[in-house]
Write a structure and sequence with these properties.
alpha/beta, Rossmann fold, 2 domains, six-stranded parallel β-sheet, binds uridine-5'-diphosphate-xylopyranose, NAD, UDP-Glc/GDP-Man_DH_C
Length: about 450
């Protein structure tokens, strides 16, 4: 089948490349000519494990191409995916649909035969109706259907998620559209990936409900972590104890500095707004958003406490800046709030991140960057693990101890056993574990 993917951002690029890998012929379209030139030359605008090889292989085999010419890509496509950005609208948290509407208007005049226009961007309920209206008004004779097919790709594991999904959600009322969508995803049915065929509005809401539920799950365990610290319990063991209950499930129960990224913060807010607009508020999600916002600031306060209540003039070393490992994405990363708060309290920041430094430079100011984790720790008053990159999981703690001016390790991802850290002579703070207790020789004890 022939596919046009409008938007060569994260979702469009991964989805387009994976469809090509299934054997479909895919053209990815973007308005950014420099991005398209780079893609054609094999240079990707994002870091995603395995994606560069997959792009190269499918380009070589002639199934994947990149262009700025939307009309040409749409003209002979069986399915046109809209995978453009839907950022939070400044000020009110509603999803900004400008790019979706623009794409719909441009697609409208480029249609030449029956085509399924598929919303892959995360869009509020009813956006499919808007897209349909825009196309109908711009091109009354067009033969098309509008479907919704939300993505559930995790950054860092997006190819795996696309090729081995827990489920595929397709919202399409028109049987012709259902048929095209089934054909597109047929390679996955062989793997028995469940297909949830539903109405368009249901599919649109399903995406928000999934992300809000996961954000709530993370927030729940973060609050349990706070409680664990107060009552002397261990949140990792609580998580295991509840996660083995199949009704709860073990995933998304890692306590940490709060969720970030391109999806959870934006999608929870958009769901809150949609629900309020319809007079049916989702109070659990509203509370989740508020708790998560406060948590990032609380993490900065925890670091300040670990530095004896004062970071003015102190050098704080930060390991990990991206919102999670295996990505260079800095969008809504907890590190941003944490670093801003520390800087406001007078700290000097030195940071190391394996992939995120270029993006970090766009959003953070007055930071020194180190070449590796040990150089980062050199002469610092505290070392803080904010993102759980694999490269940070087996650091030589004795070496860190020697490099640090003050032996304080604040591990916001719980990646070290407290005993190992204490053995290396470091004072250790983690999240929701008894490790909050300082090492034995600590005068503050
Ligand atoms: C998410 C969804 O998982 C995906 O299905 C959706 O389509 C896009 O949004 P992503 O944002 O890439 O994917 O990251 P994810 O792995 O879900 O993590 C989101 C945030 O939650 C990160 O900040 C992560 O650090 C945090 N998190 C996740 C935790 O703090 N603890 C956990 O147990 C899991």
């Amino acid at each position: 089948m022939r596919v046009a993917m409008i938007g060569a951002g994260y979702v469009g690029l991964v989805s387009g490349t994976c469809f090509a890998d299934f054997g479909h012929t895919v053209t990815c379209v973007d308005t950014d000519a420099a991005k398209i030139d780079n893609l054609r030359a094999g240079r990707l605008p994002i870091y995603e494990p395995g994606l560069d090889q997959l792009v190269a292989a499918n380009m070589r085999q002639g199934r994947l191409d990149f262009t700025t010419d939307l009309a040409a890509a749409v003209a002979d496509a069986d399915a046109v995916f809209i995978a453009v950005g839907t950022p939070s609208r400044r000020g009110d948290g509603h999803a900004d649909l400008t790019y979706v509407h623009q794409a719909a208007a441009q697609i409208a005049t480029a249609l030449t035969r029956y085509t399924v226009v598929v919303n892959k961007s995360t869009v509020p309920v009813g956006t499919g109706d808007q897209v349909e209206r825009i196309i109908r008004e711009a091109n009354p004779a067009a033969d098309f259907s509008v479907a919704s097919n939300p993505e559930f790709l995790r950054e860092g594991a997006a190819i795996e998620d696309f090729k081995r999904p827990d489920r595929i959600v397709i919202g399409a009322e028109d049987p012709r559209a259902q048929e095209v969508m089934r054909d597109l995803y047929r390679p996955l049915f062989l793997n028995q990936a469940p297909l949830v065929m539903t109405g368009r509005r249901t599919a649109e809401l399903t995406k928000y409900a999934a992300n809000a539920f996961l954000a709530m799950k993370v927030t729940f365990i973060n609050e349990m972590a706070d409680l664990c610290e107060q009552v002397g319990a261990n949140v990792q063991e609580v998580a295991r104890g509840i996660g083995l209950d199949k009704r709860i499930g073990a995933k998304f129960l890692h306590a940490g500095p709060g969720y970030g990224g391109s999806c959870f913060p934006k999608d929870t807010l958009a769901l809150v707004k949609t629900a309020q607009d319809h007079g049916s508020p989702v109070r659990l999600v509203e509370t989740t958003v508020a708790i998560n916002d406060a948590r990032k600031r609380a993490m900065a306060a925890r670091i300040i406490t670990a530095c004896d209540g004062d970071v003015a003039g102190k050098r704080i070393a930060i390991l990990g800046l991206t919102f999670k490992p295996n990505t260079d994405d800095m969008r809504d990363a907890p590190s941003i709030v944490i670093i801003n708060e520390l800087q406001a309290a007078g700290a000097r920041i030195i940071a190391y991140d394996p992939e995120g430094v270029d993006q970090a430079k766009q959003v953070l100011r007055d930071i020194d960057y180190a070449a590796d984790p040990y150089a980062c720790a050199d002469g610092a008053d505290a070392l803080v693990i904010v993102t759980e990159w694999d490269a940070f999981r087996a650091l030589d703690l004795n070496e860190l101890r020697k490099r640090l001016r003050h032996p304080a390790l604040i591990d916001l991802r719980n990646i070290y056993p407290p005993e190992d850290v204490a053995e290396a002579g470091l004072r250790y703070w983690s999240v929701g574990r008894p490790s909050g207790a300082p090492a034995a020789d600590d005068p503050a004890q």
